[in-house]
Amino acid sequence: HNPWRFEPFFRCKKQKKMKLALAKPYKGQNLKGWLMSEKLDGWRAVWDGRTFRSRSGIDLGSFRAIDMPSMRIDGELFLARGKYQGLSSRLKRGDLEGAVTFRAFDLPDAKGTLTTRLRKLRGVVSRVCRGRGSSCKVRLVPHKRVRSTEHARREFERIVRAGGEGLMVKKDVAYVPGRTDSWLKLKEESD
């Protein structure tokens, strides 16, 4: 039984581009007090209340087996560390069975700081996954408070050593669509 219902790219209807927060590369800023999370090597996707959409607005489909909420959730379709090409191939074929999950990291339309939005998002994910345990296809991306820039650097190095792509650091402020100084990415190679 396939809980995902995705159409291959060549059949997807493109909508207008999503207005999402986009990270800038880290350039030596003091990160104390920011929030950090692993930068997942996945496919950026937003649940728009009816379907998943890519950043460019392509309709990626929806869950069949899970009752998703009627609100926008910003996140990433994710297979596993180092498996972006496999995820991309699956998405292009419309085949997202198995280990693919939606990793939720923000509520773009919710009021308040990132901490407030993450608290609301934790509740949303909890309701979506009620009774499903670890088999739930929706997961919350964990965030930690940065104690110092060195703390963020150590976390970045730990993630990269474990095969991850890098680190996202975000100011604890309201959601800002577009390229923003309040979201930074630390990667070994720049985009």
Relative strand content: 25-35%
Give the uncertain stretches in residue-range form.
1-11
Order of strands, main sheet, comes to 1-6-5-4-7-8-9
What oligomerization state is this entry in? single chain
From the N-terminal CA to the C-terminal CA, the straight-line distance is 36 Å
Proportion of residues in helical segments: 10-25%
Major sheet attributes: 7 strands, mixed
Number of strands: 12
Order of helices and strands: EEEEEEEHEHEEHEE
> How many helical stretches?
3
Mean of residue pLDDT values:
86
Shape: globular
Describe this structure in words.
This protein has helices at 84-93, 114-129, 149-161, and strands at 4-5, 21-25, 35-39, 43-47, 52-54, 59-63, 73-78, 101-106, 138-140, 144-145, 166-170, 178-187. 20% of the residues lie in helices and 30% in strands. It is of the alpha+beta class and 191 residues long. The chain has 3 helices and 12 strands. The longest helix has 16 residues, at 114-129. The protein is globular. The strands form 2 sheets. It has a 7-stranded mixed beta sheet with strand order 1-6-5-4-7-8-9, covered by helices on one side. A 5-stranded mixed beta sheet has the order 2-12-11-3-10.
Task: For this entry, give a set of tags.
disordered N terminus; seven-stranded mixed beta sheet; five-stranded mixed beta sheet; alpha+beta; 12 strands; 191 residues; globular
Secondary-structure map with pairings?
Blueprint: E1 4-5, E2 21-25, E3 35-39, E4 43-47, E5 52-54, E6 59-63, E7 73-78, H1 84-93, E8 101-106, H2 114-129, E9 138-140, E10 144-145, H3 149-161, E11 166-170, E12 178-187
Parallel strand pairs: 2-12, 8-9
Antiparallel strand pairs: 1-6, 3-10, 3-11, 4-5, 4-7, 5-6, 7-8, 11-12
